[in-house]
Request: fold
Amino acid sequence: MKIQLLAWKHFQGLSLKNKLIFIQLLIALAIISVLIVFQIISDQLESRAAIIQNLRSIAKIVGDNSLPALNFLDASAATEILASLRFESHIVNAGLFDAEKKLFADYARSGYRDYSYPYLPPGLRREGGRFIIFVYPLVQDDITLGYLLIRYRTPGLFFTVARSLGLGLIVLVLGTILALGLAVRTQRAVSRPILNLIETTKRISAEHDYSRRLVKPTSDEIGTLYDGINEMLEEIEK
Reply:
């Protein structure tokens, strides 16, 4: 609270010109910050949707290719098919289960060989904060012959957020520079007529020349203020 009071006191001590610049800059920064947060959330959702779509496509291809191996109980062929997943860098484990829900063949990337390959119902689920488990049922002629489990390592949250924040920081800096330039230029439309009014009234007060009239610069509230000053000068002159 004390810091807020000091900040408000400092703001009150600013000139009108600097107040206008500060207010416009603050509004611009608030809008840019909201957009950055929205973009980070949007990136996370889009990334997750892309991962899920990719998993579904991979599971269908690998699963369809594994059906003959399940039909002929060819575990070595099934293992070779699962080994093709090594080209997908984020897939660390894959398990092929038969119709009895027993592990038939598996694949593990180096560093992930201690995975226990639990049977899980078909569907998508998260494992901790780093892995997505997708179980795909292998169906042929309306008969479920087995299940394919894929364990996918998601990119680290820190990495994805840091990347989004890096881009957001660039936008924030460029937006701040642009907003500052526009604020400096646009504040003149408000501050200049008021500063001219102050200067003119000081001159009238010093010279006691109440016959002088102010030229109204605009038709807004500032113009109304000019009209009021002119009416007051007219009354004083009378």
Summary: The chain has a mean pLDDT of 83. The chain has two domains: 12-186, 188-238.
